[in-house]
Amino acid sequence: MSSFYLSKPYQPPPAPKNLPISDPWALFGGISPKRFMKEYWQKKPLLVRGAIPAFSLASQNSTPSLTSPISYEELVELSEHDDVESRLIQSKPWRFQHGPFQKKAVPSLKKSDWTLLLQGMEAHHLAAANILSWFRFIPDARLDDLMISVAGIGGGVGPHFDSYDVFLIQMSGRRQWRISEQKDLSLNPKLPLKILQNFQCEQEWILEPGDMLYLPPHIAHDGIALDAGCQTWSVGFRSPSFKELLQEGLWRLAESLEDIPELEQKFADPKQMATENAEQLPMELIKQLSNQVEKLKLHQIDAFLPGVTAYLSEPKQQAFFNGPAKPLNPNAFLKHLTQKELKPSPQTRILSLGKSVYCNGDEVTKNQVPQIVAAWITLSAKKALMTHKLSNIHGSSLYEAYLAGWLVFDQ
After folding, report:
1. What residue ranges do the domains of the chain occupy?
2. With left for phi above 0 and alpha for psi between -120 and 50, is residue 150 left, alpha or beta?
3. φ/ψ (deg, to 5) at 134
4. Would you give the distance in Å from CA 63 to the centre of its chain?
5. Strands of 79-211, DSSP E
6. What are the tens digits of pLDDT across the range 335-345?
7. What CA–CA distances, in Å, run from 390 to 17, 135, 340, 383, 406?
8. Orientation of helix 397-404 relative to helix 370-382, angle to 10°
9. What does the buried/exposed string (b/e) look like for 283-304 if buried means 16 or more CB atoms within 10 Å of the residue's CB?
10. Residue 24 DSSP code
């Protein structure tokens, strides 16, 4: 009998709204998220056997074994979509292609030495979104996405390193992982992929379904699929450079100057003296600009943080939002809010800076009444809102976000 009939898809539950971060979690081998962050985060790898206990419990109880919530066929179908970032990597020799793909372009499970990678899967499947919710003890600003790799036997992307933290969860089949804390991270210039030139394995394991491996940045690693249809779910955390953050913060800060009418005033220099050095930038201009910079407090971090928060709240490049086909009018919207939870679309990002909330790159609490501000604060913290306290949402940023498809009612 085919193993297909002896397995059933695992259904990952969403995390509770209040994570018990001081309690031991099976996900981390019986230690708490607080202890994990203190002892392992950005410091050293952690291998957890049975991180998702449901897999081992199913095999022990003679019940059908568990497999990935998303089948190979579903992943291939998703790789055909324009709004899904996908890549196909084949070895022997190494080849690399960007999606979307036609179905016949993805190798069958009978073939070896290939890997299909799909980014941002939390936006396309509830199971991926639920697993991502398990990691909300780490700031949302650090979260990148959940990537799924499905592979034939021997499939992998070669020995490499990442500049970010990653949790590698084995969801179907087995994968051999080899890692190294080597300092030599030079890449092979002759290959189309970022593959290490001199990988020296220091530790290796075979991960079974339900196992997890955490790797901090710059740990060299190589994963090879041992079974057809091997699936690894990677929860990645971005690490932007200071240059990137400051550039984005400065750009948005420059845009915000439009809201300061005094800056429209023209430069004037009635005290300018005759000069013998006309080629030099005049000291009077430097002095007045210095005064304006001091007024704007550009030398203080608070001036940059709104722009940085807005940048980090931007959705992924492939994100596409559809407003509701039959949008509720403001009164019906308010009634729905008392009966169903309003949630961010899976592709929406929401971050807070104090009591200011940024959604998909916009400061949505700016010039809003206190009730709407409170609603956004709840949405940012809990990723859900159900309330009787709103009385008028016409023209509010909350209602506009619903019309834009940024916020959706739970079905």
Report:
1. 3-237, 242-269+281-306, 330-409
2. beta
3. -65, -20
4. 34
5. 86-90, 95-98, 114-118, 143-151, 165-172, 175-180, 203-207
6. 999 999 999 99
7. 22, 31, 14, 18, 19
8. 50
9. eeeeeeeeeeeeeeeeeeeeeb
10. -
Residue-wise pLDDT for 188-241, tens only, equals 999 989 999 999 999 999 999 999 999 999 999 999 999 999 999 999 999 999
DSSP code string of 330-347 = HHHHHHHHTTS-EEE-TT
What does the DSSP assignment read for 201-270? Answer: --EEEEEPTT-EEEE-TT-EEEEEE-STTEEEEEEEE----HHHHHHHHHHHHHHHGGG-GGGGSPP--T
Helix (H, G, I), strand (E, B) or coil at 114: strand
How far is residue 354 from each of residues 43, 118, 141, 191, 236, measured CA to CA in Å? 29, 34, 14, 46, 25
Kindly list the distances between the CA atom of residue 403 and the CA atoms of 83, 118, 324, 326, 348, in Å, as whole numbers in the listed order. Answer: 20, 29, 6, 10, 13
For 48-82, write each residue's pLDDT tens digit: 999 999 999 988 876 778 999 999 999 999 999 99
Token pair for 165: 């933290």
Q: Coil, helix or strand for 179? A: strand
What are the tokens at 135? 């990691």
**What is the model's pLDDT at position 46?**
98
Spatial CB neighbours of 375, under 8 Å, sequence gap ≥ 6: 385, 387, 389, 390, 398
**pLDDT of 131-167, one tens digit each?**
999 999 999 999 999 999 999 999 999 999 999 999 9
From 30, 64, 65, select the one nearest 49 (Cα to Cα).
30
- Torsion angles phi and psi, residue 344, rounded to 5: -65, 140
* pLDDT (tens digit per residue) in 3-49: 444 679 999 999 998 999 999 999 999 999 999 999 999 999 999 99
Q: How far apart are CA 233 and CA 221, in angstroms?
A: 15
Tell me: pLDDT of 1 over 60.
no
CA atoms within 13 A on the CB side of 321: 21
The identity of residue 88, as a single letter, is: L
CATH number of 3-237: 2.60.120.650
DSSP state, residue 175: E
CA distances from 7 to 1, 127, 317 (A): 11, 17, 36
